[in-house]
Each structure stands twice: as C-alpha cells, then as structure tokens.
Amino acid sequence: MNIALWMLQALLAATFAAAGLFKLTQPISVLAEKLGNWVHDFAPRVIRVIGGLEVAGAVGLIAPAVLGIAPSLTAVAAAGLVIAMIGAIVVHLRRREFPATGVNVVLVVLAAAVVWGRVGPYSF
Predict the structure, then answer these.
(1) Which distant-in-sequence residues (6+ apart) come within 8 Å of 11 by Cβ?
(2) Where are the beta strands (DSSP E) in the chain?
(3) Residues 6+ away with beta carbon under 8 Å from 41
(4) pLDDT, tens digit, 9 for 90 and up, residues 50-64
(5) Of 88, 92, 96, 122, nearest to 9 (Cα)?
(6) What radius of gyration do the chain's Cα atoms show?
(7) Which pTM value belongs to this model?
(8) Label partner for 117 (CA 20 to 30 A): which of 32, 45, 98, 111?
(9) Phi, psi of 122 (to 5 degrees)
C-alpha cells in the first residue's frame, strides 16, 4: 500500500505542479482560453496565488518524506489540496461547468486518499 500511496502522491504532485505553473506563467487571456472563463471572476493576483498554492502543495506531497524532514507535512499538503479542490468544485458548480467539476471531484478524492493513508495506517 505504501508503494501505491507514493505513486498517487507522484501523480498528484505532477498534476498540481503543472496546473500551478501554468497559472503562474501564462497571461490571463491564455488561461481563460485553456481553463475557461472562470478566471475572469477573479483578480489576476488571486489566480497567481492559486497557482502558487498548487505548486507548494505539489512540493509538499513529495519533499518532506523524501528529505525526511517532518514527513507528516505530506498529509498536511494533501489536506490543503483537498481544501483547494473543494473551493474549485464550488466555483465550477456555481458556473454550471460540470466537466470541470468532475475533474476536481476526482482530484479531491485522490488527495483525500493520500491524507487518509498518510495519517492513518501508512503514516511515515
């Protein structure tokens, strides 16, 4: 089960790192084209903060355990990503963007599985 959790953490880290870096580096017009018009509901600064938090969460899924420095922070990072995805679900549901909501539901379930695994039976 530990190997499965590591694989899940790596998958989530890659996904959130890519999404976060995209939000951090691309102009708002490109983000709106690729991600949807929801980006116009937020100030550009907020989009950049979301991107930064996603990158931080991605690093937090891997770095603490790999470096052996406070590995319990892996579960904290995963919990933070759960909270972020719940916020994304709310935004997409309000805008009736159901395909995007589905992606966020999958991500919240996977991140919650990491929280459960790392806090519960397979903690470091």
Answers:
(1) 110
(2) none
(3) 91, 95
(4) 999 999 999 999 999
(5) 122
(6) 15
(7) 0.92
(8) 98
(9) -120, 35
